[in-house]
Design a protein that fits this description.
about 290 residues, mainly beta, 13-stranded antiparallel sheet, 2 helices, about 10% helix, about 50% strand
Length: about 290
């Protein structure tokens, strides 16, 4: 596998972790819409994605990644796996379910980031924890669905050799899925938005400046926990007979965030985006009724 960045990707020993997290981040940002139809119990394949992420929320510098992505879908009665998440794994009673939420951030080399020059690198993070999802609305055909999602994730920062706990993150948001609305039949549109909250430890990891790293242009700063800004994501995807295409746009606002005055915050508004194509290389003969088909 090959991972390309517009700036250095770090040491060779860390490359595998960087690839994994970049792949995971792209997969988690690709939403899908709800629909009911007969589809294979499982599908597997692979593809290619190109994504653009800021170094971290608040950075005015970005990286572009070109990377392979897996395509894995399982539509079991109790366990459902797709590009977005593992669903119904813990508990499910209509209209609510308890599942596992996973996300993360990409690594940042301080040598390649102007705001962090001379500071320790930011290791990639893995975020994992429970999420309560409550369906607020769905029409008769299930072509439109509105959900309230309440994920609470613990954050682990790691460079493979060392691992550290980096706080908690809470991202309540409303998710709206549409089927066959734009640009035509088979296209699924997903929209979500909501505030982000995090503990002091999490904000400290990204935005604090210890006295020994202070400079005339980068004063010392001690980040507090609390409000962490707003996030909005829009994604469009379609599953064809033998392949799948998708893309997303993510908007971030840090206005009013607890760490807004950190000298490491160089930009309070930012956009991320990505596109991908994946080929379905294998699938089961068994078909199932798939109300949440990707």
């Amino acid at each position: 596998m090959t991972l390309h960045r517009i700036r250095g990707a770090g040491s060779g020993s860390q490359t595998g972790m960087y690839k994994f997290l970049a792949i995971a981040l792209f997969g988690l940002l690709l939403l899908h819409a709800s629909r009911a139809e007969q589809l294979p119990l499982w599908e597997a394949g692979a593809g290619l994605a190109v994504v653009r992420f800021p170094d971290y929320r608040g950075s005015d510098e970005h990286n572009i990644y070109a990377l392979p992505i897996p395509y894995v879908v399982y539509r079991g009665e109790r366990l459902k796996i797709d590009r977005q998440k593992v669903r119904g794994l813990l508990f499910s009673i209509d209209p609510a379910e308890l599942d596992v939420s996973v996300s993360g951030t990409v690594p940042v080399s301080s040598h390649d980031n102007t705001a962090r020059q001379g500071m320790p690198n930011l290791d990639p993070t893995l975020e994992i924890g429970p999420a309560i999802n409550v369906r607020l609305f769905s029409n008769a055909s299930d072509s439109t669905r509105v959900e309230l999602r309440l994920p609470l994730r613990a954050v682990i920062a790691t460079d493979i050799k060392h691992t550290r706990y980096a706080g908690l993150l809470f991202h309540p948001h409303v998710n709206v899925d549409f089927k066959d609305v734009f640009p035509g039949p088979g296209w699924n549109l997903g929209l979500l938005g909501g505030p982000v909250f995090a503990t002091e430890r999490y904000h400290d990891y990204f935005y604090s400046v210890a006295p020994q790293f202070a400079t005339p242009s980068r004063p010392a700063f001690d980040a507090r926990g609390g409000y962490s800004g707003l996030q909005f994501i829009g994604a469009l995807s379609k599953r064809f007979q033998n392949y799948w295409v998708g893309g997303f746009v993510k908007a971030d606002s840090l206005h009013g965030a607890a760490f807004e005055d950190s000298p490491l915050v160089r930009q309070k508004y930012a956009l991320s985006a990505g596109v991908a194509i994946a080929w379905i290389l294998g699938k089961s003969r068994e078909l199932v009724e798939a109300k949440d088909a990707p």
